[in-house]
Amino acid sequence: MKITIVGTGYVGLVTGTCFSEVGIDVTCIDIDQKKIEGLKNGIMPIYEPGLEPMVKSNLEKGRLHFSTSLKENLKDSEAVFIAVGTPPGEDGSADLKYVLAVAREVGQHMEDYMVVVTKSTVPVGTAKKVKAAVQDELDKRGASIDFDVASNPEFLKEGAAIQDFLKPDRIVVGVESEKSQKIMEKLYKPFLLNGHPTIFMDVPSAEMTKYAANSMLATKISFMNDVANLCEIMGADVNMVRKGIGSDTRIGTKFIYPGVGYGGSCFPKDVKALIKTADEHGYQMKVLKAVEDVNEAQKSVLVAKVKKHFGNDLSGMTFGIWGLSF
């Protein structure tokens, strides 16, 4: 089986490498010539434990390829994955220009049926836009070629992405036809055989699942920070409270550690995008807006504590930060 992955950022490179590891013939595409040349020589543009040796191994075995040309590598591909960036706009909405540019290029060069899969984190309704973009280019060519769109969101944690992909909690796939589902089942067959939960659903539900998952995790973080602030006022020990509620299996122990708030490349962007999507459809995500407010305020809590301890004048002082996470 052959697939093409467009984008060699964090998601695209990990996805392509892990698929090649289970025997799929994968070509990763990127417009950055320097990055592609580096990857061909085993030079990683990112650091992820286990990624470099896996890339080199599959390059040597001829299962993993890198190129700057989508046109030359679409032939015989049963699926093309769009794994390009979706940076937030000024209003918080996801910018789909790179996703749709890839969709248009697929429409310009595809020759046979394939599944066009969005791997990037995208708002609900993006698949319809991708389908329209591909179809528009086919119409311009006067080409009558069947294709389907699908959504296959990633759930990778930086630092554990390889294991997250190869041994996932679940695999979510949104499809629009039996034909596309069979291709995605074929692609994920090694994972199905290993018993990893694979959930097939409609495309909009798959698109929503990614945003809902990240927003739920962000909600847990903000809630626990709110509780921590109240504990400090009331004289309670938030770590004891955390252990007390974390022992409840309905809640669990993950993402309930108080701190300075969530950050990174995903949670802030995805929470904002979901709020914006709701606004565009006339609905207010009141809980998520509160999650954002708490997270924004939490940034100043640590500074306030430092000033309370040392006084307002911090000039000339040196502070060490323990930990380099988000």
Describe the structure in your own words.
- It is a single chain.
- The protein has 326 residues and is of the alpha/beta class.
- It has 2 domains: 2-201, NAD(P)-binding Rossmann-like Domain (Rossmann fold); 216-310, 3-Layer(aba) Sandwich (Rossmann fold).
- Helix content is 49%, strand content 10%.
- The protein contains 12 helices and 8 strands.
- The strands form 2 sheets. The protein has a 6-stranded parallel sheet with strand order 3-2-1-4-5-6, with helices on both faces.
- Helix 4 (97-109) packs parallel to helix 5 (126-141).
- The longest helix is centred in the C-terminal third of the chain and has 32 residues, at 203-234.
- The relative contact order is 0.10.
Structural topology:
Blueprint: E1 2-6, H1 10-21, E2 25-29, H2 33-40, H3 51-60, E3 64-67, E4 79-82, H4 97-109, E5 115-118, H5 126-141, E6 148-151, H6 161-166, E7 171-174, H7 178-187, H8 189-193, E8 198-201, H9 203-234, H10 238-246, H11 267-280, H12 286-310
